Amino acid sequence: MFVSKRGTIGLDIGSRYLKLAQLNAGREGYELSLFSMMPIEKDVISDGLVINKSKLVSALKALFNQAGVKKSDVAIGLSGHSSVITKVIKVPQITEDELSLNIKYEAEQYIPFDIKDVNIDFEILGPARDEEGMMDVMLVAVKKSVMADYVDAVQQAGMNPVVVDIDCFAVGNVYEMNYGASDRRAIALVNIGACKTNISIIKNGQPVFTRDTAVGSNAHTDALERTLNVTKDAAERIKLGERADGVKPEAVAEIMERTSDEIYAEIYRSFEYFRSSAGDEEIGGIVLSGGATLISGFVSLMSERLGIPVETLEVLRKIDLPEKTGASVRDVAPMAAVAIGLAMRSAGDRQ
Ligand SMILES: Nc1ncnc2c1ncn2[C@@H]1O[C@H](COP(=O)(O)OP(=O)(O)OP(=O)(O)O)[C@@H](O)[C@H]1O
Ligand SMILES: [Mg+2]
To answer: How far away, in angstroms, is 35 Cα from ligand 2 center?
Structure first.
């Protein structure tokens, strides 16, 4: 494992919370030297797109200020089905250099945007299991305009963006660091935020399937707002467990459960899609991260409904926590997964 000494800041620009993390080389691995989180107004970020750049710049400045960081190298993460494509594809076995020359041609059929409008990257995963002479390649395509919006906002906020990564890979890095890469079962890493869910299924330490879907815990807030006829802010507070006058806890529980069921069903659809494309491969376990994980009963209900063991990603299992960062991160650790995964990257890594 490469331990970054330069301490790149991992910056997760979520639609509900901005988070940043910084790691140092600790005694036996990493130490979390910095973690900071701040809510962001609605309609600044939506579905992985920057909707209001000047508000994002101000919010980022406030976050950096809160965290006490000055001009630093930053790794940012992108996700969302409307701007990022990640896909395991099969190509004939050739060298990495040869594939660099061909990747645009290979990628074209998988990318629903004009190839001129996307940045393309890839990683060779290894020989394809089921087809002689072919290899599996993780293809990544990001809309240039979307990436430019994020990079520009981070620069305008006074930072130096050096790495652009993909959220689900960041979660994968955190999983591998904490759990190792030896599990031979297919494990689904599922990061459920406010407006989207990043899914990646890994096997033997390699991603075999990735997908972002547009469901998240905003669905809980919306359902509470609609059904209880309260404001969005009140709905958000009720969701986080606050009691409200005239609102029965049983009614809240029922709405929460019904909405969680819709989220599980959407995730299950992605699993079915994976299974049908992977010869009925079963998913051996689900490891959850993101804010939805903190909703009371969400993890156990998911396991019950899907009939698959579900656990919360132990983001900090192998990370030392100095006292000053411990307090800020302990209670929200599942939400810190992307920022910490991004902080594991450093300038000069392949983007
Ligand atoms: N205890 C909690 N504290 C904070 N947020 C919580 C809690 N429980 C549930 N949530 C919900 O989790 C969501 C925020 O999670 P997260 O920070 O992972 O999302 P995000 O990264 O901002 O959004 P996205 O990635 O979808 O754009 C919100 O919908 C929030 O209401
Ligand atoms: Mg997120």
So the answer is: 15
Q: What is the pLDDT of residue 171?
A: 97
CB of residue 83 inside a 6 A radius of ligand 1:
no
CATH number of the domain where residue 136 is located: 3.30.420.40
Taking only Cα atoms into account, the Rg of the chain, rounded to an integer number of angstroms, comes to: 20
Is 230 among the domain residues?
no
Q: How far apart are CA 90 and CA 139, in angstroms?
A: 10
Residue 348 inside a domain? The answer is: no
How many domains, the chain?
1
Q: Distance from the CA of 215 to the center of ligand 1, in angstroms?
A: 12
**For residue range 216-260, what is the model confidence (pLDDT) as tens digits?**
999 999 999 999 999 999 999 999 999 999 999 999 999 999 999
In a domain, 91, yes or no: yes
pLDDT tens by residue, 291-326: 999 999 999 999 999 999 999 999 999 999 988 888
d(CA 158, CA 272): 44
d(CA 138, CA 81): 16
249 lies in some domain: no
Mean pLDDT of 192-212: 94
d(C-alpha 99, C-alpha 138), whole Å: 12
pTM of the complete model beyond 0.90: yes
Domain span at 152: 9-219+257-343
